[in-house]
């Protein structure tokens, strides 16, 4: 018995080494970890059946009390038996693949063991098939209960089924005296040897699974990091500026030697290797990119010839080019280039494919937001069309009356009216304008209104000077001032007061318009800004429109709040983020013309 133990450990080592080598193969890892289809079950049957055959061939021949030499066995004496690790592979196969794999692998290894001969040939064949059935059954039951197949459970199954094999030998092998002598000699070495081998085999599989999970987690974290950093730029659409920023982020966070983005006509950005001839604002240099734009399918190149760059000295030797799609239409490509083909491994390929899908989704969201912005622009233009004719007629009537009594003042008001409408036209074309432009528009409006109602109200501006260049949406201040004038002081005998306060606090621009007018009924405060309100003198369209535009433009980061008490005035506060993170803005240089 003691002489057999080291030899059994040697045989266990052979199977464990084979298992370790297989664990380095991606195909083996995929078959082991996936839910098994019919084809994969056939592969597992063949795999673990082969383990059993190897165990048979490398087993130790035992003739009565004599232990044979460690050699490749092709046949045995009829009075001999075999000590081996066959049950170990069958148990692992049954536990991982279920009854079908256990039975299939058991049949392959069992029948092969029977062909080798020996007085325990039938006993070992039957016990091998039984081990596959039992291991497959318990493996399936454990999975159905949501339990993992742990190394401890596997060791117990391996040792118990090996012990069952000893019992089957005692019951079926003839003569019984030879069977009893054999079991005494090989029983404990085989039970504990197979138990140890089963443990080591399962630990290798667990380590393999953990490595795969860790790789997926790292890949997912990397994808999230890239998505977080590139999202603000993708929301600008495919522009030269946004694509350059995205490409630089990708170059830093991946193993690529160059990153490029194109639209369907030209290169928008290329950073990294080969930047000397892959230049923005030019047609794509590579035939690979053109094929992707035509086919809409991912293309991978591992040679310079496959990339098909027209520049003979191009250092790029491998690439993955992926289509960018918006509503199933190809709008461009995303490309990762490598100067050494081996850098383009499976991990890089999967990361690139996942990012291409993510980038396409981000572009679709950007397009959806652009459409929302256009809709909100249309809403405000429709609102302006309703308000301006009434205001224009009143202003012209006032100026007409002044032409006979105060020509200089009439001329000044004409200039203010011109400034007001010019500001409105410019604002209607822009998403964001400088605060000072909005203030100029408000003051032009006030000049006209105060001429009509000189003693109705006073207005005071309290503004931090450094904020005048801050970009804000147009038409958010003037409608609030207009509301305060028309609805805050109707037929008021005392002079009204309006205070406009603008300051920064906690990285937010705060715009506060407060008046001491008649206030707003409590029932209306709850709905103003959230919906249009039915009223004899107004329907809350201006406040609702401002609130909706703030939500759309600043992606929920801006807010409008309203406080009021009847006969004590009203206060409206707008909070806008001062940084551009999450704001749907185009390149700042193009936001305002004027």
Quick tags:
alpha+beta; 17 helices; five-stranded mixed sheet; about 55% helix; five-stranded antiparallel sheet; disordered C terminus; about 600 residues
Can you tell me about this structure?
The protein has 594 residues and is an alpha+beta fold. It has helices at 4-23, 26-33, 38-57, 86-97, 99-116, 121-144, 151-172, 176-234, 240-253, 287-295, 304-307, 346-405, 407-428, 435-452, 478-488, 522-525, 541-553; strands at residues 60-63, 66-67, 80-83, 258-263, 267-272, 299-301, 318-326, 329-338, 433-434, 457-463, 471-472, 496-505, 508-515, 559-564, 570-577. The strands form four sheets. The protein has a five-stranded antiparallel beta sheet, sandwiched between helices. A five-stranded mixed beta sheet has the order 10-12-13-15-14, with helices on one face. α4 packs antiparallel against α5 (99-116) and α5 (99-116) runs antiparallel to α6 (121-144). The longest helix is centred in the middle third of the chain and has 60 residues, at 346-405. The radius of gyration is 40 Å and the shape is elongated. The relative contact order is 0.06.
């Amino acid at each position: 018995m003691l002489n057999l133990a080291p030899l059994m450990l040697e045989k266990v080592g052979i199977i464990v080494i084979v298992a370790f080598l297989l664990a380095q193969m991606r195909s083996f890892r995929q078959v082991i970890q996936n839910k098994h289809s019919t084809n994969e079950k056939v592969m597992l049957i063949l795999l673990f059946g082969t383990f059993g055959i190897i165990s048979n061939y490398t087993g130790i021949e035992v003739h009565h009390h004599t232990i044979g030499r460690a050699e490749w066995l092709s046949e045995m004496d009829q009075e001999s038996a075999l000590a081996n690790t066959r049950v170990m592979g069958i148990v692992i196969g049954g536990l991982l693949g279920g009854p079908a794999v256990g039975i299939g692998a058991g049949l392959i290894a069992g029948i092969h063991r029977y062909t080798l001969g020996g007085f325990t040939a039938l006993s070992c064949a039957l016990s091998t098939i039984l081990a596959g059935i039992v291991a497959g059954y318990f493996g399936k039951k454990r999975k159905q209960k949501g339990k993992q197949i742990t190394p401890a459970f596997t060791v117990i199954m391996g040792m118990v089924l090996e012990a069952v094999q000893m019992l089957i030998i005692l019951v079926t092998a003839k003569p019984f005296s030879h069977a009893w002598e054999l079991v005494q000699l090989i029983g404990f070495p085989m039970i504990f040897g197979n138990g140890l081998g089963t443990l080591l085999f399962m630990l290798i599989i667990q380590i393999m699974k953990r490595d795969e999970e860790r790789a997926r987690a790292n890949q997912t974290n990397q994808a999230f990091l890239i998505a977080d950093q590139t999202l603000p730029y993708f929301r600008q659409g495919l522009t030269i500026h946004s694509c350059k920023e995205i490409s630089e982020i990708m170059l830093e966070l991946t193993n690529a030697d160059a990153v490029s983005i194109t639209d369907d006509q030209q290169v928008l950005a290329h950073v990294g290797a080969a930047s000397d001839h892959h230049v923005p604002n030019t047609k794509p240099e590579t035939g690979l990119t053109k094929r992707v734009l035509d086919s809409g399918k991912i293309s991978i190149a591992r040679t310079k010839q496959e990339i098909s760059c027209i520049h003979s000295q191009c250092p790029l030797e491998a690439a993955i080019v992926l289509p960018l799609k918006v509503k199933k239409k190809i709008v461009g490509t995303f490309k990762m280039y490598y100067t050494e083909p081996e850098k383009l491994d499976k991990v890089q390929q999967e990361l690139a494919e996942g990012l291409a899908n993510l980038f396409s989704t981000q572009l679709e969201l950007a397009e959806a937001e652009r459409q929302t912005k256009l809709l909100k622009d249309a809403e405000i233009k429709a609102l302006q069309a309703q308000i301006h004719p009434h205001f224009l007629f009143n202003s012209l009537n006032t100026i007409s009356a002044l032409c006979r009594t105060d020509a200089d003042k009439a001329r000044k008001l004409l200039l203010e009216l011109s400034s007001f409408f010019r500001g409105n036209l410019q604002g209607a074309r822009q998403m964001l304008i400088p605060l000072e432009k909005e203030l100029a528009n408000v003051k032009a409006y006030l000049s006209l209104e105060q001429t009509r109602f000189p003693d109705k109200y006073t207005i005071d501006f309290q503004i931090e000077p450094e904020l005048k260049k801050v970009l804000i949406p147009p038409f958010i201040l003037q409608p609030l001032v207009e509301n305060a004038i028309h609805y805050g002081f109707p037929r008021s005998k005392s002079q009204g007061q309006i205070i406009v306060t603008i300051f920064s606090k906690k990285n937010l621009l705060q715009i506060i318009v407060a008046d001491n007018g008649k206030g707003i009924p409590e029932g209306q405060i709850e709905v103003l800004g959230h919906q249009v309100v039915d009223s004899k003198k107004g329907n809350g369209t201006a406040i609702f429109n401002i609130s909706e535009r703030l939500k759309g433009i600043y992606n929920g980061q801006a807010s409008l709040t309203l406080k009021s008490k009847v006969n004590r005035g009203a206060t409206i506060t707008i909070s806008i983020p001062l940084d551009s993170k999450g704001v749907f803005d185009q390149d700042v240089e193009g936001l305002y013309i004027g």
